[in-house]
Amino acid sequence: MNLIYTIDILGTFAFAISGALVASDKKFDLFGVLIIAFVTAVGGGMLRDILINAHPINWIGDLNYLWTIFLAVFLTFLFKSKIAFLSKTLFLFDTIGISVFTLLGLQKGLSFDLHPLIALIMGMISAVFGGVLRDVLTNKVPLIFEKEIYASACLAGGLSYLVLNLAEAPKDINFIISASVIIIIRLVSVKYELELPKINDDLFSKKQ
Predict the structure, then answer these.
(1) Are 181 and 103 in contact, with CB atoms under 8 Å apart?
(2) What is the largest CA-CA distance in the chain?
(3) DSSP 204
(4) Comparing C-alpha atoms, which of 70, 155, 86, 138 is closest to residue 130?
(5) Cis before 56 (ω within 30)
(6) What's the CA gap between 111 and 11, in Å, rounded?
(7) Rounded CA gap, 108 and 64, in Å?
(8) Omega before 116 within 30 of 0, i.e. cis
(9) pTM
């Protein structure tokens, strides 16, 4: 669990930096950057905890999340131009982070005796809704609604976890396999620019 917690913190760090970079590009002031970084990093987990009435809410029960966000914002202000060159590293942290966030959120949902389908949705919310809130607050179309296989990868990994859980696979092995499913789908989809099919209005219009 120490390794998973460390990856969770790294994912929080990457999410916070991505939020800080977006807010900085929008010319937000320091407070605005901090808020967007905070929402991006812990917004998904916070929304999950509110929905399932879990207390204390994730970041309230562990100040390490706040310190991580403060550090990410501080480093973004100091080294913004250099951080841009670390985009691949941040993408890797982000990808690992969403895999861990998905499975931790799913596990938390199951621990609250939620139906597996609802727990799966809670896992997805944990992973992606921080980014959705970031994009909404910065007046952008959320990435998961526009392009890239993101939430779908989380759902696939979550389904893998549920299936292996039913098969009574060891929890550590299950976690590693399911996280790997999310990471592989995400990496492959970005590398080969794979997207989910879009609804074409022409399909619903009658030819004259």
Answers:
(1) no
(2) 63
(3) G
(4) 138
(5) yes
(6) 22
(7) 19
(8) no
(9) 0.88
Q: Which helix (H) or strand (E) holds 7?
A: helix 2-25
Residue with tokens 């399932």: 52
> Do the Cβ atoms of 111 and 29 come closer than 8 Å?
no
Nearest to 125 by CA among 46, 71, 44, 63: 44
The amino acid that residue 43 corresponds to is G
**Residue-wise pLDDT tens digits, 139-163:** 988 877 876 688 999 999 999 999 9
Residue type, 8: D
CB count in 10 Å sphere of residue 163: 13
Please give the structure tokens belonging to residue 88. 């691949």
Mapped onto helix, strand or coil, the DSSP state of residue 61 is: coil
- The Cβ-side half-sphere exposure at 76, using a 13 Å CA radius, reads 27
Dihedral over Cα of 164, 108, 173, 90: its sign: positive
